[in-house]
Design goal:
- With 640 residues, the protein is an alpha+beta fold.
- It has an 8-stranded mixed β-sheet, with no helix packed on it. Strands 27-28-26-25-32-36-35-34 form an 8-stranded mixed β-sheet.
- A hairpin with a 2-residue loop joins strand 35 and strand 36.
- The chain is globular, with a radius of gyration of 30 Å.
- The chain starts with 13 loop residues before the first helix and ends with a strand.
Length: 640
Amino acid sequence: MAFQSSLVAQDYDLVALQEKYPDKLGVILNHQQKVEIEVNKQGELDIFLTDHEEVLYLKESAKFYTEQSISLSYFFEDITEVEATTYTASGKKLKQDKDSYRVVDSPPSSWVFHDDNKEMIFDLPELGAGFRSEISYTKKIKRPEFFEVFHFISGYPVLKSSVEITYPEGMKMKFYERAMEGFEVERKTEEGRRGSQIASWTMKDLDAFVPEEGSTNIKNHIPHLVTQIQSYEFDGQTKELIKDVADLHSYFQEFLLLKGDESNRAELNKIVNNVTEGMQDPIEKMDTIFRWVQANIKYIAFEDGINGYVPRSCSAVMRNRYGDCKDMGNLLVEMLTYAGVENAYVAWVGTRDIPYLMSEIPSPLTCNHVICVVEKPIEMQGKHKYFYLDATSPEASYLIPPKPIQEKELLIHYGKDKFDLYKVPATHADKNYIKSVIKFSFTEEDSLFGSGVDKYGGYERENRAYYINNLKDDDLRDYVKDLALGGVNRYTLKKYDIQGLSHPNNDLEIHYDFSVDNLGIKDGNDIILNPTLFKPRVTKYKPEDYKYTRDKVRHRTIDYSYEITLPSNYKVKHIPDDVHYEHDKFHFDAEFKLEGNVLKVKMMYQYHLMEIPVELFNDWNEFSSSINAATIQNIILEKI
């Protein structure tokens, strides 16, 4: 495969680039990704992807970064050729040791126990300011259904980046351009040899991508191209791959049909009979079976070749007492069906880490998770048509969808060639909350003694219940202290009691007693006191600090109530004014009122969005300011 000739000294100005990019280690002079697709004599696709990248290094510290890597997965691809060349600042070519190439296991993702991802590692002989590297490799793509995502931007500035795809006459391809708005893109389509088509995209002078912590997935922000082979011609016939959601369902259905032998069901049937004995209500059965799987089948993610897609048999999962998401989803369907719970189905889904919907891009690349769903009786459906049974989380409730799949699409397997594509609604803020009621009073020494009850529901419950169930003794006490009173400094946690751990559908409640010293400020006969012992805060986002949409993960309610019993020898001299802020996506209310000798303060905010786009920053910051303004208000007590 031919590439443009390497840049030579007069094609770039090292000093100018060093001045333009003073903080960058290097700049990519040219990145070319070329694909050639052909139909072989057996009617199968031969797909070869060649990647060629030239990097100019701008700093002497590049000498510490000679190690290079190329990712691969033997299930999806083979590397057929690798070539690396290094040139010194004077243009001398350095020899690459062929024995330096080695293949190692990639570090698995935090949620993956084992996968077949590999890295080819090698070291360039030497680097420094003015050095240039050229690295080319060719991969044979083995799974055309997963073909392919191309990126144009890097952690280095890029002077030129291009993608070129050559495909045969009669092949139907679909190209999905993502996050290319605002970039200049040169697009070409031309005819090649023997009627082939050549499609290309070229971008120039691209800034280095700088990730922002707390932003939505990187693929929402960097230009990239998702490509899909939909069909091709061979020997007068059309061979179909995946062109729509129905084809995607058929593709996943084939994996489901490959699952292990399910004839040995003795243990499964025995356990279902035991745990549901005497039950008639299908929801009670569903609840019991789901909690049994959560408690007894350990979640271990496997992404090893075809085993990343084909569920293991229920008998194997029961025997091993572990499985991954598809194993657990399939097991739940089999157990529920045997128990007489109708309308239990396996469902594929892409989590929010994947910024595509299946209805937008019907590809296996849009899916990375499997759960079980049970269709609700019509009278119970409301906003949500299904119960969501994701046993990979031991504290998940089936009453709300798993947090990572909100506003994503479920591809629900109803049976052979039958499916439902269902978009999961976001969980309402009313279902996902922290609610605290805190009561306290003064002593003559101006100390505060009180009690509190914190209630956690929805996703707020799920995370905290997991930690509470896995901590003991001092570690548990320290964790509770960090939760109670918002972890405010200078308070003593006297005792606590945790309730609601027995069932994920219950609120988690923490009851506690506390004391706080020296929060009031004396001013003659007056005491100035901020009644909000801890401050609910909402982060502000300045457009000059953040370029990208912020990820809020879930809709949320924060509701704090304070009841302060005033000492009998003091009267209230000043109460703050109420504060209110209203927006169609978020709101805040703070109220201060005196009832007898009890001052009641209530602060509650909600937001009803998963993401904050840049155009909402100003409104969001006003919302944040209203909260901050309310929480710094003081009451003034005057001694009688």
